[in-house]
Design a protein that fits this description.
The complex is a heterodimer of chains A (about 60) and B (about 210). Chain A is an all-beta fold. Chain A contains no helices and four strands. The chains are: A mainly beta (about 60), B alpha/beta (about 210).
Chain lengths: ~60, ~210
C-alpha cells in the first residue's frame, strides 16, 4: 500500500487514526507491516502490499 | 452471534462462488448495464472513487476509465485474488480487505462511493448505507446496485435462502433511514424476463 493512504485510512471499529509500522518497503510502497489503532490498539496486518482492515471477527483465521 | 454467523456463511459461499462468478454474473448484471450505471455518475478525472464489494473487479474495470484514483474493498480474499489477476496488487487500483458495514476510511474521504452486487449480502443495509454517507464527502455521490426481487424460481430460492432483495419502496426506506434526502432509482434489466437490478443514485447531503 502507498504510504499516502494513511491520510484516508482509519480503524474500522472506532474510526480513530492508525499508526503505521513497516517491516518491508519498496519506495513509497509498504509491502509488509501493520496498522495499529491509536485508540483501541487493534493491529491490522499489511501482507504482500494489501492492508487487511477486516475487523478481527471477520478475518480468515477468526472462528466462524 | 447471528450476524457474525451470517457473515461467515456469506464468506464461505463467496469462496466457492468466486470461481464461476464472472461467468454467471452476466445473466443479471452485464457490461451494458454497468456502463449505463457509471454514466449516471458525475466523475471528474481527479476524483477519488471507492468500490465497495469490488469482488473480482467487474465494475472496477470500468471505473478506472473515469479516474486514476479508484479504491477497491472486499471482504473475500478469494474474490480479491481474481481482481489482482486483472489489475495487479500494486497497479492502478488500491485494494483493501474490509467490511462494508465497518469501513476503514475517514469521514468525507471519497467523491464517489460505488457498490454493485454487494448489498444483498449486508446483514444491516441501513447501517452500511450510513457508512457510505460518512465516507463520501458532502455534495458527493453514492451509487448502489442491488437485485430486484427475481421472478424466476431458481433465483427466488437462492434469494430467500441467503440474500436480501428489495423493491423501490424498500429502497426509499433504507436510503431515507441512512440519512439521504435526494435519490432516484433506476430499474435495469439485461433483457425481458431476466432478473432485474435496482440501481439507486443518491446525493450526499451538504
Amino acid at each position: 500500500m502507498d504510504e499516502d493512504l494513511m491520510d484516508i485510512l482509519c480503524c474500522p471499529l472506532d474510526k480513530h487514526e492508525l499508526e503505521l509500522e513497516v517491516d518491508e518497503r519498496e519506495g513509497e510502497e509498504i509491502i509488509a507491516g501493520r496498522l495499529i489503532c491509536t485508540e483501541c490498539g487493534e493491529a491490522y496486518p499489511i501482507e504482500d502490499g494489501i492492508p487487511n482492515l477486516l475487523p478481527p471477527d471477520m478475518r480468515e483465521d477468526a472462528p466462524a | 452471534m447471528g450476524v457474525l454467523e451470517d457473515k461467515a456463511r456469506a464468506r464461505v459461499f463467496y469462496k466457492y462462488l468466486s470461481t464461476v462468478y464472472d461467468r454467471i454474473n452476466p445473466f443479471i448484471w452485464n457490461e451494458e448495464m454497468r456502463d449505463e450505471a457509471v454514466g449516471m455518475l458525475d466523475i471528474d478525472p481527479g476524483d477519488r472513487v471507492l468500490d465497495v464489494g469490488c469482488g473480482t473487479g467487474f465494475a472496477t474495470e470500468r471505473l478506472v476509465q473515469e479516474t486514476e484514483h479508484v479504491h477497491g474493498l472486499d471482504q473475500s480474499p478469494h474474490q480479491l485474488s481474481r481482481a489482482f489477476e486483472k489489475f495487479g496488487k500494486r497497479g492502478p487500483v488500491r485494494f483493501y480487505l474490509g467490511d462494508a458495514e465497518r469501513l476503514p476510511f475517514a469521514d468525507d474521504a471519497f467523491d464517489v462511493v460505488w457498490s454493485s452486487g454487494s448489498i444483498e449480502y449486508w446483514p444491516d443495509p441501513v447501517a452500511t448505507l450510513r457508512e457510505f454517507r460518512r465516507v463520501a464527502r458532502p455534495g458527493g455521490q453514492v451509487l448502489v446496485v442491488g437485485p430486484d426481487y427475481p421472478d424466476r424460481t431458481i433465483f427466488q430460492k437462492v434469494a430467500d435462502a441467503i440474500m436480501l432483495f428489495y423493491d423501490e419502496g424498500e429502497a426509499d426506506r433504507m436510503f431515507t433511514q441512512a440519512g439521504f434526502e435526494t435519490f432516484e432509482h433506476h430499474i435495469q434489466q439485461a433483457r425481458p424476463g431476466s432478473p432485474r437490478a435496482i440501481t439507486t443514485l443518491a446525493a450526499v447531503p451538504e
